Amino acid sequence: MSGARIVAHSAIEIRTGISMRRIGAMVLRHWYLLTSSWPRTLELVYWPAMQLVTWGFSQAYISQNSSFFTQAGGTFIGAVILWDILFRGQLGFSMSFLEEMWSRNLGNLLMSPLKVSEFLISLMVMSIIRLSIGVIPMTLLAIWFFGFNFYGLGLALVAFFCNLIFTSWSVGMISSGLVARNGLGAEGLAWTLMFVLLPLACVYYPVSVLPHWLQLVAWVFPPTYVFEGMRALLIDHQFRADLMLQALAINAVLLVVSALAFLALLSSARKQGSLIQSGE
């Protein structure tokens, strides 16, 4: 079985030039970093759980005093979970990148046989691993405390997740590229850049609440389509496939633009020597 796996990996490397072994080595490196420190692992569970409990009880209170929220039960909790997928997906990507910056190891990696594409793929894999550690307990708490079964969204959940994780990777590539180019003095971007999308993605309210000119801006961002689709599913019991396809199309463009931006920033960092002098 191991021989067949090696042959399959070799075939992939020949066809694409991407080595699964190098990607696996990078994922394993970050997995060891993550599991070697229990506070790091605990933090992945703690913040999503606290956010869920806070907003969950807020919705429980509002639903007792508003017929709309009684009808739209779960919209707040669903929005909290989906926002956490978006934010934690980007943070998981950026944190793994920052680990290399903090250890001053990025320059060494880029001088090794590891390709930039393989490095990015390993960061994407670690993003999903970190996200799973935080979000799965969060969804179980939602069932336990509030009777909200996130997995009951069915196939719509796959569309929501894919679109949000694609956006998170795009933002992660941009923020990581800026940190590589400008040094650790710019690491705050890894924590704050996603919050620029929070009011425009209409996480907790419909797009119609925004002024008309700002609605046009909001529809530029893929998460807006996801959160509108979530509300349509929970309130009107209608899956809006059209919204998901539009979000996917925008995400495809965004991923390409973000990857090109990351490569350009990395190239600039190499020329400026930022990868070696990666301090404040």
Chart the SSEs and their pairings.
Layout: H1 2-16, H2 20-35, H3 38-63, H4 67-71, H5 75-102, H6 106-111, H7 116-146, H8 155-182, H9 188-192, H10 197-200, H11 212-218, H12 222-235, H13 241-272
Helix pairs in contact: 2-7, 3-5, 3-7, 5-7, 5-8, 5-12, 8-12, 8-13, 12-13
What is the arithmetic mean of pLDDT? Answer: 82
Proportion of helical residues? over 70%
SS-derived structural category: mainly alpha
Beta fraction of the residues?
Answer: under 5%
Describe this structure in words.
The protein is an all-alpha fold and 280 residues long. The protein has one domain (38-272). The chain has 13 helices and no strands. The chain is globular.
Q: What is this entry, summarized?
A:
The chain has one domain. The protein is 78% helix and 0% strand.
Provide tags for this entry.
mainly alpha; single chain
